[in-house]
């Protein structure tokens, strides 16, 4: 596992995959299936793995947190950067920071809080989390006005933020006053598009973001990595052709559930058996699986073709 401090080169060298986490029927970790998915991603050129919402880190017990992180660190290759997440509640942030401090991960991401919090309280939590972690963190901005641009800029100035995952969903990603206000105060090299392939072209071409995160890359890593390269080379028509292959699966994720569809899509495509989802989530029902299965298989076949 890569353990050196995070730089812009780390953020831009790879799409940041956001994989699900495989479990056995009794909800214990399935080491073999997790290894299979990691090998699938690494064979497609992926060198950055973010374990957050798709891995259901929101509901991982603190009692199994270290075991989970140590397994992931053991499974990845020597040049793969692993980004674990923590929180979102203050108690979890503090307890998990104490664990993370003694592990070799170069940073960790604060999962986004939805209720209850204030801007000032969020900033205080970020300061205490990074103090206990002993490192700068990644801030996950999942909704408009989650944090005031001035507040986030102050945390960056204090060297508490190594990157920002920007994932506020817009009907038109090109029309985003909040993102513009953030970028007026932040170095664009710190900001990664966090909503998969759908807005990636707009975010990198029009806003100058440095890379993007992806869940669907877990099914088709080669194409997503090629998309990043084309965007970095400003070959936008070719990038649009690559991106279009991901939209059917992204449509399923948006229509049903981004996390649940991705979890089962990896299994349905035949990449690895991800097993059940850790409560409080559940897998897809039979009708949903019937919709997702052919889409996931088609995307994998195209990626291999």
What's the topology here?
Layout: H1 8-12, E1 16-17, H2 31-43, E2 48-51, H3 62-75, E3 81-86, H4 90-100, E4 109-110, H5 119-133, E5 137-141, H6 149-157, E6 161-166, H7 177-183, E7 191-193, H8 200-206, E8 213-214, H9 221-232, H10 236-244, H11 247-255, H12 258-268, H13 286-304
Parallel strand pairs: 1-2, 1-8, 2-3, 3-4, 4-5, 5-6, 6-7
Helix pairs in contact: 4-5, 6-7, 9-10, 11-12, 12-13
Can you put this structure into words, describing what you see?
This protein has 305 residues and is an alpha/beta fold. The chain has one domain: Aldolase class I (TIM Barrel), CATH 3.20.20.70. It is built from 13 helices and eight strands. An eight-stranded parallel β-sheet has the order 7-6-5-4-3-2-1-8. Helix 7 links the parallel strand 6 and strand 7. Helix 4 runs parallel beside helix 5. The chain starts with 7 loop residues before the first helix and ends with a helix. The relative contact order is 0.14. The model has no long low-confidence stretch (mean pLDDT 97).
Features:
305 residues, alpha/beta, 13 helices, eight-stranded parallel beta sheet
- Beta-strand percentage range: 5-15%
Average pLDDT over all residues: 97
Instruction: Tell me the CATH architecture.
Output: Alpha-Beta Barrel
Rg of Cα set:
18 Å
- Helicity level, as a percent range? 40-55%
């Amino acid at each position: 596992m890569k353990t050196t401090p995070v730089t812009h080169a780390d953020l831009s060298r790879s799409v940041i995959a956001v994989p699900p986490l495989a479990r056995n029927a009794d909800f214990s970790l399935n080491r073999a299936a997790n290894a299979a998915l990691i090998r699938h991603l690494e064979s497609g050129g992926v060198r950055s793995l973010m374990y957050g919402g798709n891995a259901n880190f929101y509901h991982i017990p603190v009692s199994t947190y270290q075991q989970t992180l140590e397994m992931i660190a053991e499974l990845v290759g020597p040049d793969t950067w692993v980004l674990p997440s923590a929180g979102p509640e203050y108690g979890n942030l503090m307890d998990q920071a104490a664990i993370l401090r003694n592990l070799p991960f170069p940073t960790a991401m604060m999962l986004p809080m939805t209720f209850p919090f204030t801007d000032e309280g969020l900033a205080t939590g970020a300061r205490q989390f990074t103090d206990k972690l002993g490192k700068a963190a990644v801030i996950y901005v999942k909704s408009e006005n989650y944090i005031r641009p001035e507040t986030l800029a102050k945390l960056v100035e204090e060297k508490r933020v190594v990157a920002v995952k920007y994932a506020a969903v817009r009907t038109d990603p090109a029309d985003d006053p909040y993102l513009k206000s953030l970028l007026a105060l932040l170095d664009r090299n710190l900001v990664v598009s966090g909503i998969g392939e759908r807005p990636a072209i707009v975010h990198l071409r029009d806003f100058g973001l440095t890379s993007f995160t992806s869940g669907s890359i877990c099914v088709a890593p080669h194409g997503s990595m090629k998309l990043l390269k084309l965007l970095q080379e400003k070959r936008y028509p070719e990038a649009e052709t690559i991106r279009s292959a991901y939209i059917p699966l992204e449509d399923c994720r948006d229509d049903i559930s981004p996390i649940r569809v991705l979890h089962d899509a990896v299994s349905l495509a035949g990449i690895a058996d991800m097993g059940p989802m850790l409560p409080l989530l559940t897998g897809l029902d039979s009708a949903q699986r019937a919709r997702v299965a052919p889409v996931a298989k088609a995307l994998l076949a195209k990626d291999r073709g």
